Amino acid sequence: MLILGIESSCDETAAAMVEDGVRVRSSVVASQHELHRTYRGVVPEIASRAHLERILPVIHEAAREAGCELRDLDAVAAGIRPGLIGSLLVGTSAAKGLAWALDRPFLGVDHVEAHLFAGLLESTPPPWPALGLVVSGGHTSLFHWSGGRLRRLGRTIDDAAGEAFDKAAAMLGIPHPGGPGLERMAHGGDAAAVRLPRAMLGRESLDFSFSGLKTAFRLAVLAAGDAGDPAADVVAVGSTLANSTKSDLAASFERTVVETIVAKCVRALELAEQAGNPFRSLVLGGGVVANTSLRQAMLALADEADLEARLPPPRWCLDNAAMIAAAAHARAVDGDQDDLAIPAEPLSAWS
Length: 351
Hints:
- Helices cover 44% and strands 17% of the residues.
- The protein is of the alpha/beta class and 351 residues long.
- The protein has 2 domains: 2-118 and 316-333, ATPase, nucleotide binding domain (Nucleotidyltransferase, domain 5, 2-Layer Sandwich); 128-311, 2-Layer Sandwich (Nucleotidyltransferase, domain 5), CATH 3.30.420.40.
- The strands form 2 sheets. A 5-stranded mixed β-sheet has the order 3-2-1-4-5, sandwiched between helices. It has a 5-stranded mixed β-sheet with strand order 8-7-6-9-10, sandwiched between helices.
- A hairpin with a 4-residue loop joins strand 7 and strand 8 (150-155).
- The model has no long low-confidence stretch (mean pLDDT 95).
């Protein structure tokens, strides 16, 4: 079964052809980083206009790379939530129009769920149940995944890990996209230079919180710059710090986020073991999973806990349409489809 996936939830215009849910025949992504860099973040109006300009060329390029025609498709899928509503409308409208014109089923996909399917692309299914972890710009969530069913175990109650990375990067004057820049800055830094808080939220809580960490990091940047006023412009202060100081701050922040995520995963594994239903694998997805320190830590955890690990390569960690098509596959095989009236929504079903 050949499915076209379309993704336009934020600032990536993407289309991909995926066969049987795992074989990626093409994946095309048009990034907008250069359009938003000046603003240190994504501007919704600019993003939606750029999607309009790029969506059709990206779809046609995906078909060309896959060596097929659009009429060869068995179904069309699109990420319908969560995301910037103007951006989502571009991708969902294009997918619905194409499905209608070709008389093919349309399937709407939740972007958060799709990130987990990225870990299964070009791979064999893991043994179930799996502990699923999504770490992205807008979501940090833990799931119990039995293959056909997801059950959320924990989520962020404020800032997601990716959002925290971007905000910390901005405080150091690192241009958009901040997360990868902060990782590069952290390389060679002393991760023990600054002690930052790790929010655990109770003995058995599997939820995440990074807003306190962000505030503590802001104060650490101001202190490093000898700024006596806590209301000082942190970006102005952070931008003037020596690179060695920036590296230490970035490394300390990265270590804190990674250790917090690992601690929550360990807690989830322990609770499942106590309940008599232990996890057999670990599946990760989301843009922050491209972070080298997090990948190494999660692989070490999987090895220690004797779990099979499914970590997508970096190209499938970032927003892409292959994961959208993969997430739609099981439903399409069962003959399921969505009404073309299904709306795009800014929030995930897991928000």
